[in-house]
Amino acid sequence: MDIKIDKRVARVEFLEQNGDLMKIRVDKKIYEVDVVMVEDMVYSLLFEGLSYNIEMIQGAKPYKYSVNTLYNSYQVEVLDQANKLKLGKTLDYHGDADHIITPMPAKIVKILVKEGETVKKGQVLIIVSAMKMEIEHKSPKDCKIKKIKVKEEETVNVNDVLIELT
Hints:
2 domains, single chain, 4% helix
């Protein structure tokens, strides 16, 4: 996803999550950060032995925030598909014509289809939970479910194939 921080735009990818420890890529650099939610929209981050407290304040639009640290304040805007997530909508599609993938580490909440089932374009196939949000993944086309590669309650990593389509 692309995130605008004041006047800078950064490409941010969630690579892996193991408990509170998150591995993220910002542009081309990889960071390992220990993230704990202290209370709603307040986080404690440990990075390279230093502790940072971050407060996020919802802006006028659901994908805009003021992010405050002890000494600085930043205006942040989530620029792409994550806008839909913040708005509580669904992802139209992630993957290629024959696969549904997850764009970030997630937990499988509900699988709504079975192998061999015929589905319609736009039909919700699977619901995952990531970053404290539930995300619905829809079919990109009229097709059949070839293989379901995950189970409910399973944790998946970025770009894992969740469902194969025919």
